[in-house]
Amino acid sequence: MKLLQYIFVYPVLYILSLLPFGVLFLISDVFYFLGFKVIKYRVKLVKANISIAFPAKSEIEVDKIVRQFYKNFFDIILETIKLLTISEKEMKKRMTKGDVHVLNRYYEENKSIILAFGHFGNWELGAIAYQIENFPHGKGVYKPVSNDFINELMIKIRTRFGGDVYAMEDTVAKIRANMGAQSAIGLIADQNPSNHNAYWYIFLGRETPVFTSVEMIAKRFDFPVVYYKINRLGRGKYQYNAELLCDKPSKTKKFEITHKYIELIERDINEAPSNWLWTHNRWKRKKTDVH
């Protein structure tokens, strides 16, 4: 199966990646029409999630967020394919630098950090934008999927400009093995944990299981935590910013870092709801299900 995907799927993706953004966005518009209006890919789930998160919004307001989310969603897919061949010059044009003084500070101090993301804006472009700047070397943590072709494709995309990736289960061992080198451990931990040992916290007004991986790794190695936000400025245009979440994790209380991380994710979602990834079944479990 993987061989067939490389023979028939990869060439199509590669050719798509060579197209200018204007053409890619026309294709995205077609995907939007087919995926949202015809196939209705997860539309009921997305609308339900947004309604749960914003109970005070009218149905008209919710529908507007849903429509804009799907436009963003299909743009992200095409933009991510573009990363197969995008140039550094084009990346800097598409993803501009905002306030990143905290990243410059830790680079100059030769300190390793945890770079905490959310599924906000276009996180894949944000990760690449990070790689091409003079910051602590990026090492993104990812959860392998069952499709080997997809795994290898995403690793290729995520390491094109010199970054590295760690499979989730190997992260702690890999960090230990590379303690002598300055690095930034990139973590996205705002989606639904698959295990039943997750920490439960009020997220977007509802008790929700959340990952504690950012806090766990930060406290184990006492790496400062930097929150990395991708703002959408317009179609195909983004800005990345960084803010200090925690400088001394070893001195924090239990779940303090997790709370702060979730609060920052919530802040960004409230500011621009359509820019978050709503297609996960975020509230499929209740806390009573694990007892």
Give the low-pLDDT segments.
Answer: none
End-to-end separation: 41 Å
Strand order of the largest sheet: 1-9-8-2-5-3-4
Global mean pLDDT: 95
Write down the domain tally: 1
The run of helices and strands is HHHHHEHEHEHEHEEEHEEH
Give the amount of beta strand, in percent.
Answer: 15-25%
Radius of gyration equals 19 Å
Looking at the structure, what is the overall shape?
A: globular
3D architecture notes:
- By secondary structure, the chain is α/β, with parallel strands linked by helices.
- The chain has one domain.
- Helix content is 47%, strand content 19%.
- The protein is built from eleven helices and nine strands.
- The protein has helices at 2-18, 21-38, 43-53, 59-82, 88-94, 101-108, 123-131, 148-158, 171-177, 213-221, 256-271; strands at residues 95-97, 113-117, 137-142, 164-167, 183-188, 199-203, 206-210, 225-234, 237-246.
- The strands form two sheets. The protein has a seven-stranded mixed sheet, sandwiched between helices. A two-stranded antiparallel ribbon has the order 6-7.
- A hairpin with a 2-residue loop joins strand 6 and strand 7.
- Helix 2 crosses helix 4 and helix 3 (43-53) crosses helix 4 (59-82).
- The chain is globular, with a radius of gyration of 19 Å.
